[in-house]
Amino acid sequence: MKTCTSLDSLAVNESIRDGESLVSEDGTFEVGFFSPGNSTGRYLGVWYRNLYPLTVVWVANRETPLQNGSSVLKLDEKGVLVVLNGTNTSVWSSNISNQTVNNPIAQILDSGNLVIKNGQDAKEEHLLWQSFDYPCDTMMPGMKLGWNLMTGLDRFLSSWKSADDPARGEYSAKVDITGYPQLVLMKGSAIMFRLGSWNGLALTGYPTQQLKQKQRYKFVMNAKEVYHVYEDLDSSMVSIYTLNPSGIVQGLVWTSQSSSRIVIAAGGDDTCDNYALCGANSICNMEGNAPKCECLKGYVPKFPEQWNMSYWSGGCVPRNKSTCKGSNLDGFWRYRHIKLPDTSLSWFNKTMNLKECQKLCLKNCSCAAYANLDIRGGGSGCLLWFDDLVDMRKFSQLGQDLYIRVPASELGI
């Protein structure tokens, strides 16, 4: 086995040992073995080379720590990266690609992406493997968060168990594509918080996006992929998003003017962000530091006594059930500055306008609300919800218009 002689890459049968590392060409990222926190276990990871504190963005053997200093990272003849322990036993390896392997090279890119490629062919679609396809707890500029629909690959964040243990923890942040795609934070299989869907300007559950003036954020949805991605626009700034062991998504920012990082909450700021806090058909509104739930127009508490005691999980039900015998018997009430409801059971169309969206909703007796998909340029696209509306909140500004279906009698028509 040959020791690596190149700064940023490994050729076939080249390796690095514990204490050695690969460094990206621009010096930003380093690949090597490390011990997190107070742990004595050794892990292969990628970290920012010149940021304080040590900021690890990816871990290979996160479930299988090595217990001595004789660890090795090697690129084998099949183009597979392998982490070996002191007895030369594999504890982790990259996936084997279906592509033809020809002169494979493993390289840490200036983006922090650890890749395996054929020779010097660095086109993303030709890569044999890349760490960006298998995120840990950190989203970085250029990393896709979401789905490759052709292969079924789901790129999502998963928290560490603790600051000392990078094994997969309880929390994950992923793109839910069961309806119109939305970003959700989960604890196990339960949704804890929805950052929501992309409306052309922001995520509906996180409209402030404190870094949006210094980042370019993009949502891509086509027949092949559904994903979110961003890039930093300010060359003097480094930013990442991390899902910490407590289930909180944080934006971490370093600037050339500051020697320490700035921590910015990325949603989940208050109690109203708790998923479905108010039950169905109700809107959460923060009054001071306390949440308050209010039934939608035309709805009343399902369990009034519990509701009056601030036990809101039972939600609200229609005061008068719509007869749905004709479109003239129903109308819509507009709510402004709203976090749109859970879109997992929604229907969407990218080309319809808002008037067409309203007409379509009226034709379906189960349609409970509608809104624009994209709020740029006066709005475009159609998003429909059916039956119960879950997980809404009121913002003091920003947010989006939502049109709730109610019987004409509720509108005074």
UniProtKB/TrEMBL annotation:
Single GO term (MF): protein serine/threonine kinase activity
Which keywords describe this protein according to UniProt?
Disulfide bond, EGF-like domain, Glycoprotein, Phosphoprotein, Receptor, Signal
Gene3D superfamilies in the record, alphabetically?
Answer: Bulb-type lectin domain, Hepatocyte Growth Factor
Q: Which reaction does it catalyse?
A: L-threonyl-[protein] + ATP = O-phospho-L-threonyl-[protein] + ADP + H(+); L-seryl-[protein] + ATP = O-phospho-L-seryl-[protein] + ADP + H(+)
Q: Note the Pfam families from the entry.
A: B_lectin, PAN_2, S_locus_glycop
UniProt GO BP: recognition of pollen
Superkingdom is: Eukaryota
| Domain Bulb-type lectin span(s) in chain numbering | 7-129
Residue span(s) of domain Apple: 324-407
EC number, as in UniProt: 2.7.11.1
Entry's transmembrane regions:
none
Q: Where is the EGF-like domain?
A: 268-305
User: What is the protein's known function?
Assistant: Involved in sporophytic self-incompatibility system (the inability of flowering plants to achieve self-fertilization).
Q: What is this protein called?
A: non-specific serine/threonine protein kinase
Protein source organism:
Canavalia gladiata (Sword bean)
